[in-house]
Amino acid sequence: MIRKAGKTDLESIRRFAFVAFRKYVPRIGREPAPMVADFEAAIENENLYVLTGDGRIRGFVVFYPHGDHLHLENVAVDPEYQGRGDGFRLIEFVEQAATNAGYDRVELYTNAKMTENLEFYPGLGYEAFARKIEDGFDRIYFRKALS
Questions:
Q1: What's the predicted TM-score (pTM) here?
Q2: Spatial CB neighbours of 25, under 8 Å, sequence gap ≥ 6
């Protein structure tokens, strides 16, 4: 089940972000943006959703409208549940929300040193379209047209 996150989910979400993204710290040389995101604001703005199962939170996603598209800001799955399709379910949820809201595409970025993502997103139909240095991070932008 995917539902809007509430304030009671905040500590679990922060722990997830730490556990899911800490492996990238040595590659990037500092904590990646998802580890230090303002999850409290995302909850207050109703942009954060959690995937639950087995009586616990298994993953989360943050997304919001940005101009003429929906922006996928952050997606993470508890490492214990990775490889079971939860990340795909969360991204599919975002794509459906975009379609329901009348958007024809989803855009996102990932750090260039998160090499796993450079194969993951194209495998879901996302195309790279830009590369930028922002806030000291080397980011690759992807987008997916929705039909």
A1: 0.94
A2: 31, 32, 35
What Rg, from alpha-carbon coordinates, does the chain have?
Answer: 14
Q: What is the pLDDT, as a whole number, of residue 58?
A: 93
Q: Domain 2-145 is classified in which CATH homologous superfamily?
A: Gcn5-related N-acetyltransferase (GNAT) (3.40.630.30)
Instruction: Return d(Cα 101, Cα 98) in angstroms, integer.
Output: 5
Tokens 């079971």 sit at which residue?
84
Nearest to 94 by CA among 117, 123, 67, 62: 62
